[in-house]
Amino acid sequence: MRNKLTIVLLLLNIVVFAIIWILERSPKQSAAAAAPLADFNMLQVEGKSLDSPRLIRLENNRWRIVKPISWPANFFAVNRIKSQLEYLDRQTSFSVSEIKSHGQTLADYGLDSPSFTFKFGNDKKTTTLKVGKAAPIGNRIYMLDEALDKIIVVDRELVESLAIDIDRLRSQNVFEIPRFEVGSISIRIPQSSGNSGSKFMRIGLVKDGPSWKFESPVAAEANNKAVEGFISSLCALSARSFVSESKAAANFDIGAFPLSITLQGINRRQTLLIGSPVPDSNLVYAKLEDNPTLFTLDADSFKNLESLKTSLRDRRFLKFDIPSVSGMDVDTKDASVKLRSLKDGKWELLGSGGNIPADSVKMSTLLATLSNLSARDFVSDNAKVDFKSYGLENPSLKITLSFDDKTERTLLVGSTYKYGAATLAYAALEGGSTVYGIPTGILKAFPSDQLDYRSRIINTLPEKATISAIRLVDLKSGKAVFELSAEQPESIAKQIAEIADKRKKAAAEVIFGYGRSFVAQEFEPFAFGKEGFKSADGKLVKWSWALEITASLPGTGKTISQTCTYFLSDRTGGTEQYGGFSECPNVFAIPQKLINALFEFETETIEKAKAAPKPKMPEENK
Prior knowledge:
Layout: H1 2-38, E1 42-47, E2 54-59, E3 62-67, E4 71-72, H2 75-86, E5 92-95, H3 96-101, E6 116-121, E7 126-134, E8 140-145, E9 150-155, H4 156-162, H5 166-169, E10 184-192, E11 198-208, E12 211-216, E13 220-221, H6 224-235, E14 241-243, E15 259-264, E16 269-277, E17 283-288, E18 294-298, H7 308-311, E19 325-332, E20 336-341, E21 347-349, E22 356-357, H8 360-371, E23 377-380, E24 397-403, E25 408-419, E26 422-429, E27 435-439, H9 441-445, E28 457-460, E29 466-474, E30 479-485, H10 490-497, H11 502-516, E31 517-519, E32 522-527, E33 532-534, E34 540-542, E35 545-554, E36 559-568, E37 578-581, E38 586-589, H12 592-611, H13 618-621
Antiparallel strand pairs: 1-2, 1-6, 2-3, 3-4, 5-9, 6-7, 7-8, 8-9, 10-11, 10-15, 11-12, 12-13, 14-18, 15-16, 16-17, 17-18, 19-20, 19-24, 20-21, 21-22, 23-27, 24-25, 25-26, 26-27, 28-31, 29-30, 29-35, 32-38, 33-34, 35-36, 36-37, 37-38
Helix pairs in contact: 1-2, 11-12
């Protein structure tokens, strides 16, 4: 009895293991059977509602529509179809022999005259699927797999994806080369030349590392941002419609030389040909080279292509690395200025009487102005250009930049001309062939007077020096109208802080600041004299005030005291007052801030002088 029970249990275990093995094996077999369905390089769709069969193929790892048009296929649409076919084996199915055993035929499922027929496969195997009528339950449709002689109940979504509209199946973009892959652009623009036939303008750009450059019609730098934007617009071109007109009507016959745009990618190139306008529309005929399919595009996308030779051009034609500049010469028809860099952010003026410090801030501004100089107009790119006709043979301004590598670049600025409502100046680089139109402001920005380049710092106290006394003296009376002094340097600042009058307190703070570092507003072409200076009309302008700044400088073993005296004229016109310093050969204009501060203390003396009785003339004494 026990032996019988053991045998029964053993048989039951065998049966259970067999069932598990079958269940585990079945999905794998189905998947294996389904694998060829998804592994295909050709898909054809035929149907009663389709005008013509649709055929797509995998060519050079890219899906293309072969019929009814020759066109790149939509990558995502094809992948969606493949994904649907991969899950075909998981749908409900039953064999044709099974329905026949129940007295049914293919006609009962609408499969004797299918609405659609799909064929897909590869060189080794092709699968044919026929689509019948809708199933009575659910949003499903009957489909016949002829190879397996099996009826599959599939979701309607699968059929809809296979029978997708041709406009959704095709790629929307005209160019297949992605924007980031484009390495060069060539545009051929037909130009009429009278009875001699047609000539072409070629605009060619090539990518050189991170930058774009023009190869034609002139060798020049391109504006990277503008070029990238133009490429993006080309890669976004989409066919508006596909047409069946003759090539002659679209201006694509053998004798025609249409406008063309060529993009060069990595190991591939595409050329778009633009034909004649479509009658009564804002469209143009177009086709891709080596592709017979005709389509239309928006005409606005190809207007003013000739302007690309300037709109894509880099208008900054004098770019350079500012720290590498070692010198700058400024020449006009009247005079010249020579400046050299000291390589610590400082510049100096070269002169027969010796070198003097130049205004480093001004030099930085001028170099930035030159480096960012932009052309408003491209006048001529003729290698045989006559510079004399543009006033460049004897230029109004000539700026020569010297660099650390011993090279030089020279900017020539010639005569002016009208450009619309603006006035521009002709400009060129010495040795170049292009004439530019630039703003005339550069003529004022680079004067030839050395005074405009001098450092405006008249005198600066050493870092460890402290101010121990300040006196503003009326030279007419010899009396001080403002005076502060202290044995302890910090007491000066304390005395200023204790001034009750807010206006005079603020004025004293300004004078104290200029006492440490006296900076001029600008230099004047008048020589300094102890009594005063001669103005432009030859009259002597006497000094009326003296600002004395006494500073204590720590030395070896003792403190050294030093007084700097700045001579000042009377204030004229409210915004003018001149100054002089014995160590500065030229008179200078005082900044408005200091003029206002000094006037707070000068005004009392001036008012008293106005109120004083005038001496009688000899005639009145009689």
